Amino acid sequence: MADDISRSALRAVFTHTNSLPGVLSRRQKIMGGHGTITLVGGNEQLLEQCWALADTCEQLWSRFRDDSDISRINWAEGKPVRVAPMTHQLIAAMISGNTVTQGTYDPTLLPDVLQAGYVTSAVDSSRSTRLPESARAPGNLKGIQFSDEFVSVPRGTTLDPGGIAKGFAADLIAQFALDQGAYGVMVELGGDIVVQGDAPDGVAWRLGVQDPFAHEGHASIVRLQRGAIATSSQVKKRFGEGENSTHHLINPVTHSSAHTQAQTVTVIAASGARAEVLTKRGFMDSPEEFLSWLPSVGGAGLIIFADGSQQVSPNWSTYA
């Protein structure tokens, strides 16, 4: 409470003097791609701490590291595994995401993802994912049990953090930055963006949705005061060539790459983890069904199709 009062008082000073707090930003490699963390009213030490937290998340959740919590869970063959509290929270977010999407987001399809061709790290070819012979898809998500510092995943069930790891990590980092005194923060990890607190202009964060057919262009510009925006794409991670090529977005019914004209699905939601899981249903349902459903679960969405056309949910204009 005292921190909130202090922060509000300083905001009043900035408003009265028509000035804004300083902005710090850094971009670097993270989670198989690049990320950017921007602080409003923070300092270099806090920025460093935010990136340290991002590194910790990657070390805990990467399926390309044999010593990560996720890899140890996947090789435990049903035995309890001691994991970090953040990993408990991530798995709980996976289960919640599966529920809210009515199963179209399923983090237990890792064997299918490997079968589609996504075995080796996109940034380090020396790292690859291995699974025990017992691994099956789909797994038994409802059979996961939590006990104090331990998690038990049923034998044969394996977890793929995938995009939700980026979104959830961004959520954690943004909250950490505010808790440590920043006035505002933007965390972008591999295209998933979470914003909280004051924007650099004192009004709202201005965020671009990348056009998959124009590397430097934006398909849409949105403004968020707080929340998250995530984009999933079947364009970036493709394996093979021509009509036989596959991608990493798996249809839980067919257990193969989703067959759809949707090239990218972008969702705005309250958190990065929620935005990420909601995008997945956009590759499974018809565009009309998906976009009409999104507002009922607190989301707004944009789909870009193979011909470059776009379709948006009824509430997208609230942000665009």
TrEMBL record:
Q: Which cofactor does it need?
A: Mg(2+); Mn(2+)
What does the record give as the reaction this protein catalyses? L-threonyl-[protein] + FAD = FMN-L-threonyl-[protein] + AMP + H(+)
Which superkingdom?
Answer: Bacteria
Q: Which residues bind Mg(2+)?
A: 163
Enzyme class per UniProt = transferase
Question: InterPro entries, per this entry?
Answer: ApbE, ApbE-like_sf
Name one molecular function that GO assigns to this entry: metal ion binding
According to the record, cofactor stoichiometry and binding are noted as: Magnesium. Can also use manganese.
The EC number(s) given in the record are: 2.7.1.180
Q: Which UniProt keywords apply?
A: FAD, Flavoprotein, Lipoprotein, Magnesium, Metal-binding, Transferase
Its family remark reads: Belongs to the ApbE family.
Q: Which PANTHER family match?
A: FAD:PROTEIN FMN TRANSFERASE, THIAMINE BIOSYNTHESIS LIPOPROTEIN APBE
Query: What protein is this chain from?
Result: FAD:protein FMN transferase
Where does this protein come from, organism-wise? Aurantimicrobium photophilum
Q: What is the lineage of its organism?
A: Bacteria, Bacillati, Actinomycetota, Actinomycetes, Micrococcales
